[in-house]
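Usage

Read records sequentially. Each one opens with the input sequence:
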Amino acid sequence: MPDDWQRALVVAAHPDDIEYGAAAAVATWTAAGKEVHYLLATRGEAGIAGLSPAEAGPLREEEERRSAAVVGVSEVEFLDHRDGVLEAGLGLRRDLAAAIRRHRPELVVTMWGGDTWTPPGVTPGYVNSADHRALTRSVLDAVADAANEWIFPDLTEPRWAGVQYIAVHSVDPEPPHVVDVTVGVEKAVASLTEHRRYLEALSDEPVEEQARRQIDMATLAEDGGRRVGFRLYWG
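and closes with the structure output:
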């Protein structure tokens, strides 16, 4: 995984998406002096059964801000698209391109957007969220949009052609690019634990145990350490 960058923008669909593995890489990067910002397409307001979107949205936003702070991220932006119905199209691309111009990253990190995802050692796997699929495709397109002044000429932010790499969080058991996150694992667990209300709604298992199990599953063990995988593309 290349290291010749200083500012990263991590883009996800919902609060908690980043915390299922990628936050371990974020903690490692910020500990090394890198600057990382978060961009969330939605506030995750449709994500807690029995809790109305009006209540869940602000709660999940606050959980995400606390979670980000644990791994050294102080800037978290929400685009306010509606949770559950993200569309891979011009509207989302435009908003993402504008955000990329605002944050001006050299590295853009986003989530796995394949039709299915399979955690290591788990079969047959799961159908990926429609929001995840839409988000990843739109991020890949928006990087180019941010660099082109003619695609969305109404945007007021100066164009940004400085993205060197796009890293897609990989669920492959043998990912093509890896980050050694051994030093970031404990912060990643603490970061996921901040999504307490959300995790309580998912399972009766204690939140801390859920977080530990999820991070152990998401960070691949290797030679006594831990790593997180990515698929890397030129920006």
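Summary fields computed downstream for this record:
- Strands lie at 7-12, 35-40, 76-78, 107-110, 116-117, 126-127, 165-169, 177-180, 220-222, 225-234.
- Residues 7-234 form a domain with the Rossmann fold fold (CATH 3.40.50.10320).
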